Amino acid sequence: MTTERKYPDMWVDPEDDPRETDHQPRGEREILLDYLKSYRLTFEMKCEGLDAEQLARRSVPPSTMSLLGLIRHLAQVEHDWFVINMGQQDVPRLYRTEEDHDLDFNGAVADPAVVEDAWTSWRREVANSEAFVNRAESLDLSVPYDGGQLELRDVLVHMIEEYARHCGHADLLRECVDGRTGQ
């Protein structure tokens, strides 16, 4: 079922945008989490309504980047930063092997099962990340990393940057798929 929109080439009419609320975040933690939540939602909106072939379409050859690859990549990034780095867990990495460091993009094929796995992984990793942050008493939480220390606030800023960059990629990829442009 398609609903009529004032701006059919956009993701959503501005007055219906779920990212726009009357809530004004206050304080460092709340502001960072609000930005990250908004970018995660933006990314999800840019992928809405597409089938496996459209999600897997590599719109800018010879690049292997696709919306499906981005879903897998962002699941991997969430997992790497919050489970492996901040959580200090020694577990296998998502969508990455010794043989293929770019499996997140290379394995993004037009198969509904691959799409379902990607969304399941992304949603699981976002939930794990949110739970990790909620358990943390402070953004000063610090763990050993690369010969130094890594603070939770640094990871949150990095995640905002990661999503912002990839939402820009998703804008272009989606426009190549069906002409819709972001806001």
Account of the protein in words:
The protein has 183 residues and is mainly alpha-helical. Helices cover 55% and strands 4% of the residues. The chain has a two-stranded antiparallel ribbon with strand order 1-2. Strand 1 (142-145) and strand 2 (148-151) form a beta hairpin. The radius of gyration is 17 Å and the shape is globular. The protein starts with 27 loop residues before the first helix and ends in a 5-residue tail after the last helix. Residues 1-26 are annotated as: Disordered. It holds the Pfam family MST.
Low-confidence stretches: none
Q: Provide the residue-averaged pLDDT.
A: 91
The CATH superfamily name is dinb family like domain
Give a count of the beta strands, DSSP E runs of length 2 or more: 2
Element order, helices and strands? Answer: HHHHHEEH
For the biggest β-sheet, the strand order reads: 1-2
Largest beta-sheet characterization: 2 strands, antiparallel
What Rg do the Cα atoms give? 17 Å
Based on helices, strands and strand pairing, what is the structural class?
Answer: mainly alpha
Strand content: under 5%
From the 3D coordinates, which CATH architecture would you assign? Up-down Bundle
The shape is: globular
Count of the separate structural domains: 1
Distance from first to last alpha carbon: 23 Å
Helix content: 40-55%
Give me the number of helical elements.
Answer: 6
Q: For this entry, what is the oligomeric state of its chains?
A: single chain
Spell out the key features of this protein.
about 5% strand; Four Helix Bundle (Hemerythrin (Met), subunit A); about 180 residues; mainly alpha; two-stranded antiparallel ribbon; 2 strands
